[in-house]
Specification:
There is one protein chain. The protein has one domain: 2-Layer Sandwich (Enolase-like, domain 1), CATH 3.30.390. Helix content is about 40%, strand content about 25%. The chain is built from three helices and three strands, in the order βββααα. A three-stranded antiparallel beta sheet has the order 1-2-3, with helices on one face. It is globular, with a radius of gyration of 12 Å.
Length: about 80
Amino acid sequence: MKHIQYQTQGTCSILIDVQADENDVIQDVAFLGGCNGNLQGICRLVKGQKIEDVIARLDGIRCGDKLTSCPDQLCRALEKLKIER
């Protein structure tokens, strides 16, 4: 099992906790801070998905005039987690 606690940058959430199995399938995601309802939805939608599939769908999403978003920051966390073997 792989695990990361990723400090976000440029979003209302401040931390993303992610666990994935040895096949890069996401087992659990939790956000600290941010829009609680929306982030709960994202967590449920990505659970059971392959890391690369989630990155392909969520990478580059922006929140308002910010250069990033919570889904985009999740992609940064997943990229870092995928590298850690």
